[in-house]
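2.7 Reproducibility. Because tokenized structures are sensitive to small changes in the input, we list the exact sequence used for Glycoside hydrolase family 9 protein, including any N-terminal residues retained from the expression construct. No trimming or masking was applied before prediction.
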Amino acid sequence: MPRLLAPAALTTVLALGAATAAPAAAAAPPATAAAPQAVIRVDQVGYATGEAKRGYLLATRATAGAPFTVRDTRGRTVLTGRVGPSAGAWNARYGAVHPIDLSPLRTPGTYTVRAGGAVSPQFRVAAAAELFGPLTRDAVSFFTVQRDGAAVVPGPLHRRPSHLTDRRATVYDVPNFTGDGGDVLAERPTPIGGPVDVEGGWFDAGDYVKFAHTTAYSVAALLLAERAGGSGIGAEAEHGLRWLDKMWDAGRGVLYVQVGIGTGSEELGLLGDHDVWRLPEADDALVTGPGDESYFLKYRPVFVGGPAGGPVSPNLAGRLAAAFALGAQAAARRGDRTAARHWLGEAASLFARARTTDVGELVTAYPHAYYPEDSWADDLEYGAVELARAARLLGDPRADGWLRDATHWAAVYLGSGSRDTLNLYDTSAIAHAELITALRAARLDGEVTERQLVADLRRQLDAGVEAAAGNLLGHAADVADFDAASRSFGFAATARLYRTVTGDRLYDAFGTAQRDFAFGVNGWGVSLMIGAGADFAHCPQHQVANLSGSLTGGRPVIRGAVVNGPNGADNFTDIGIPDGARSCPAGGGNRFAAFDRTDARFLDDVRAWPSVEPAIDFTATAALALSLTAAG
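Resulting structure tokens (single pass, no recycling of outputs):
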């Protein structure tokens, strides 16, 4: 499901009225005179030597059979051919989309494609590890920018310690919300306890709120990426894991789920995180007291997921248990059995608290509209199988019991109405792959079979293949909906997981095409990972990057950050520049306007949270997909 309200939908002072004509798949706003007659889309990072390789020519009119050439950096022609027939119109200006088969190109090197009077960005052909291993490290570098607390990494954006008052934070009851979107505070938060130490962790996105929900997803994905061979990941995953350890008070049976308030309330006289554009260390310098409008910026509230000692929302119980148990596995592999047993204990105590009857609305964030998840059996499958795998490594006799639990929740998931694919809201693809491997090792019969789990992986991939067949550039993501980048990397990861557990390469080309989409094989020709490829978001909606970095794609940028990507045109109505933000260079954000459609846009501008706000879950999914791809 999409994000219904982006965490950094900040208070705006300059409205931008975007056109909202009735959706039409092939229409677009008027193009500027400078718009080219033809453009070529390629994976700007590159292609592994042996994989399927496809580019596209977008032209104002069909030119079936037009010749193309591929040249190396010395200008030598290394491949020739003809473009395929047009699959249709991208928008009103670009009336033809022609595929270009580059698969015969297998010699390592750097190349460009020429066709229809256009020249592509440069791209590489190289070993998968050479291409995608460095990008995994870039993704980890984004997490270092997101660090909160004392243990920041200064880096090129000159991060400084922030929100040190989180060391002695007041705990508040579950807040009430009203309004059409269910996102308006109905009353001032009610204190119920504290102080608690919730210092550290990661900012969720372009703002400074911290969530257990997205952090757990990201920690687990990073630990899986490390296990797949990704380098430089362990220390950053450990940073997130230590913060989750603070959020779960096993002794009292209390899970803290959020630090900070997103949107404040003028009526209640309080400012939320999204209402002020600033560097995070500015909050520590505030002089404020109870009742002041800025009080919750410096003394950030901590919200509970439910009553002490009571049941925990099952999605959170499952995914946090998975993160802790994967932490136990990582510690066991490096020989630190003390740490491994600690993380296993945290996972076990939280998993045992899961609410599994009368579940009601899941807890993700306050308000729930920020992250409207409704699937939870997949998270319990995930948590149980990682507990079983950790227990097996440590010789813990509970391993078989947790493995049977995993098969139970897998069966519940398969029998439910959930039909999503890998992203923040559905972790079943990872859980299934992990469970298949664990069942083979244990030779244990449970409530599901390996065949059923493989069939559901195929169901998810087949859904993507079907969606891609309806899109001119072969992508499964809906460019008129949220989370295009994350879902594309999710498909790429799932294709690799499927191959790992089955040995079947049926979905390899599909998975490659979804990664290609994220790195430039899309209608806008933009890479959705900052710093990767020739053209990426220069002016994202990210407070640290906006106030401390380049606004033109130069140095420094938040390298490795994955942004949302194209989005529905209606989502850009009434956006505006946040008060206090640095404006992007005039006209810079509109450099993609010629490729917009009336149903979808990509706007590279600090105003454009629907397109260019990065997030930790987007980037963690990318890190997993890239590490699996680099591993071969």
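The longest helix spans residues 314-333.
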